[in-house]
């Protein structure tokens, strides 16, 4: 989430990198760097009301996302500035050559996968139900929205159909499904989420990229694939919850050969927040602190 106070940061310090010591790996050692983009990229001043938090980063600073190549935009902030904010976000990502999936001006676009090389990406979220693409959005009528999955009631046929359709594409050898699922501060994985993970990994998905909880959650391997239920918060300006250690997360470097997952590396990360001249500097770095590393190990 690089909205909110990041606008002041980037205006004040154009050369500041949010990626810290992650940058060499992201630039030179990976083919695709993907994230969940938990903000809009817009200058719109028409927020979604009522809503407690509305996030936006001005498009003039969106190049700070570099070297991101894929962004999941199916989450509970992509419509924070309504349809104009969504359109601005998609146009900005297009201008930066960042692929995305999970939201759109209609249901067809929201469910549309994106393909980078031989990897196909899908993205969906289980909240908010009233942001589901194809469903009128109060208080204004509209069809824009997210690829919504009703996980609680196990209504995930559309998700499985999307996977089956993508699996038939001859260009696609690996499928990544990015899911914004579950509530905040959720230490226990719900049975419904576990069943959805099972269904996806047994119906053609290779990697589930899970997020939403604001803290790390379990990792599970099954059917030759892997499910990250929650990778934690990579970079944001949120207050830190001491119980869930929400400033500690991880990135995963996944090696794929011949359409098979050969190796999965876990790299613990930590967000550092510092103030200077009333500007909040937020940066993520690999952490070498034993306490942080053990926290990640013990919670996966």
Quick overview:
By secondary structure, the protein is α/β, with parallel strands linked by helices.
Q: Your description of this structure?
A:
It is a single chain. Helices cover 21% and strands 27% of the residues. It contains seven helices and 16 strands. The protein has helices at residues 6-12, 23-28, 82-95, 107-111, 157-167, 191-201, 290-299; strands at residues 34-36, 40-41, 56-57, 70-72, 99-101, 103-104, 114-116, 119-125, 145-146, 174-180, 207-211, 219-222, 225-228, 248-257, 260-276, 279-286. It is α/β, with parallel strands linked by helices and 300 residues long. It has a single domain, classed as Purple Acid Phosphatase, chain A, domain 2 (4-Layer Sandwich).
Might you state the CATH topology name? Purple Acid Phosphatase, chain A, domain 2
Count the DSSP helices. 7
| Number of DSSP-assigned strands | 16
**Would you list the SSEs in sequence order as H and E?**
HHEEEEHEEHEEEHEHEEEEEEH
Distance between the termini: 23 Å
Spans where pLDDT lies below 50 across 5 or more residues: none
Rg on CA atoms, Å: 18 Å
Strand content: 25-35%
CATH class: Alpha Beta
Strand order of the largest sheet: 7-8-10-11-13-12
CATH architecture: 4-Layer Sandwich
